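quick one before i forget lol
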Amino acid sequence: MDKVAKIPNKFHSKGEICSFLEDHMANTYEKIKDEGEYEYGKNLVKTYVIESNYDDVKAFFNSLNGKSIVKWKKVGADAFILDYKKEDLGVNFYIDAVNPRFWAFHTISSAKDTDSVINKMVQPMMSRLDTLWLDRTMLQEIRIEHADYIKSIGIQYKYGDVFPSADFGDSFSLRANGTPSEILMKIFLEDPELSNLFALSSVGFKKNLNTNDELETYHLLIEDVNYQGKFTVKGTTINEHFSTISEIRDNYEKILNEIEHEYNISYKPVGGGFTIHGGPLCIDLKKKIENLQKFIQTVFTAREPFRLSGFPTKVDSDTYLISGLDLHNGDDFRLEITPEWIRVYLPKDACGNTVMRFLCNLQRYYDPNASLEGMNNGRII
């Protein structure tokens, strides 16, 4: 195993680690700007935002023991350095758990290795961890709210990876960098045919931050965000990187809270009867499901990418009811599926991320124009 690029264990505070990350980020950016290439062994700063259902970070560390070699050190309130080794993989993270539900895993280790390790942590059944699931609308809003201008877009429509098809055109990928990115995004949104392929998977943007009007000095941030909440950054200010992550995470958490508090269904005894709080969410489909039975057999198989198990009941030729289980967290759910829409019924205390993951994967593998609505409050995303 090659030597792991890591955040040194010698640090004892968040401030020391943040200064180290900023220096590393700035040095890497200067090398790219001056020479047009990365310095060998100098990986970019990356952050993975992970949803946790653990009571605390130490419980998560304990769950890793026996599966891998784990060393960790506390460096501040809700802040830790984690060294992780398993087989031929070795990575290092600075974990900021100031938000108890959404932890930020910062790293300078190899992207290939950190991607693999994050997947090994998140993907097992009942892992109690999940990623963000930023749908197309969220990614579009990120580029509007945070960008001075767009640096890149990624599109990955993978219908053919899940739904067997003889038509090669049923899958489509594109990565655009520079000025054409904004133009291409507009074309894909406005063209009816191209919109059906516009499964936005990432956006890259640039910010110029004036630090001193008199001296005309600036900080620069170049950020790439993918649909699972992985942030890859270049530039000169780590604090703006942290601020960007916090704003996107807080907006995501706000949507989850709306789902869980307004729509999760619960019952309260009143007199001789009961009242119902909550109601169904509705996923509106622009691409009609032509064969409901085949669709259900493909999606609810307990396999990637949906990771949902379901037991269907046919109501009539155009309606199925699904009693489902989210293998990621063990939550039950109910679905009502028709060719034009899918209603989602979440019980009390169910995780809203089940809906976010379902919607995001529907956009990537079936209908990029699918949207989420509340039955009473209109469009959510």
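fyi DSSP finds ten helices and 20 strands in the chain.
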